[in-house]
Amino acid sequence: MNGQEEPTPKVTEDKTSKVTEDKTPRVTEEKTQKVTEDSILPQVYKRRWIILFLFSFVSLTNNFQWLHLNIIGDVLLNYYNASLPEDKFQQETALDWLSMVYMLAYIPLIFPSTWLLDKKGLRVVIICGSFLNAVGAWIKVACVNPDRFALLMFGQSVCSVAQIFILGIPARLAAIWFGPNQVSTATSLGVFGNQIGAAVGFLLPPLLVKYSPDIDLVSSQLYTLFYIGSNKDNRLLSTVAVFKKEPPQPPSRAQWLAVRNAASQHYGKSLLRLLKNRGFLLLVLTYGINTGSYYAIATLLNPVVLHYYPGHQKEAGEIGLTVVIAGIVGAILAGVWLDKTKTFKGTTVGIYLLSLAGMVAFTFTLNVNLLWVVYLCAGILGFFMTGYLPVGFEIAAEITYPESEGTSSGLLNASAQVICSEVFSK
Q1: For a FRET experiment, which of 21, 155, 290, 368 has its CA 20 to 30 Å from that of 132?
Q2: Whole-angstrom distance, CA of residue 143 vs CA of residue 147
Q3: Can you list the domains of the chain with their CATH numbers?
């Protein structure tokens, strides 16, 4: 697992087949290229696990910043009432925008961010994302005052821009650092960090911040919550400095070819080829519906649960946690399954059907007045819907090779943001 992949034997050129002076330059070039390609010795490095862990922690902190506000929406509405509109609907809309700003930022900025990933590599992009996330988190620390909702929105907006540099990385990182039999598992583990961030974002805020008419008490609780997030991001920023752009040797022949062709690839032409790929466009649509629905559920979970179960703020967070934890298990199992079977299409169709069944069950059991049933249906929904995230990245990489995994993943995520935005517009 940590060792070297079985190398391809070097090609030894027979003396009788050497290119003589009367051969054309093209023949000489083709033969040289073949010898070079056949002489590749793919290698994987132990440090790949450190790189994956660092990225997962970056993703964790960013996804925590996304979800940790809306899950205590009722507390924020009461606390920031002085700086919110008087109309109740406008207040709730303003609160929803703390999550929606992530979707708004992603859609236009996905193209420059994937261009930067293609041209500068993983290290530059990850450092950009970590820096912006830390800045946004520290801005929130300064927002602990009832008349500073606008500043809170600004801090959240900075974190939303950081997301652009993080969300589409797992498939690209896995391809660059991991061998062909570990790529799907590595992608799942990359998504794992993102989902752990969501889990902490659902669980921690309701435990730290309680609804109370005492503004000073809520101020103290919010300060603790924001400081925990900012301190974590600050330490991470120094740690991520050890992040490497790529290994000395590629982990597979396919990755060697991708690196060799990257310098000559034109980003605009690559994007155009992706948009002409019918299979990929179908995947973009279906992935957007599935993942966009998950984003909408995560954003609206607090008001939806409190509508049917008033006063159960803690349970709303626990239901969200159930969705995420079940999804983490589903994502890891899906990654291992794909590495073993390579059944991308069958796995995708199966997950779509089961996600639909889970969504129907969750929707129609909210009003049965049995919380354990809601927990159960939330777990089933999360296992398939959230577990599909790495599967989508991997099937996109498969059907669009040799295009950049970062670009294909970015377009999938953009589709999810568009679908989620459309849900809110209704």
Answers
A1: 290
A2: 8
A3: 46-425 (1.20.1250.20)
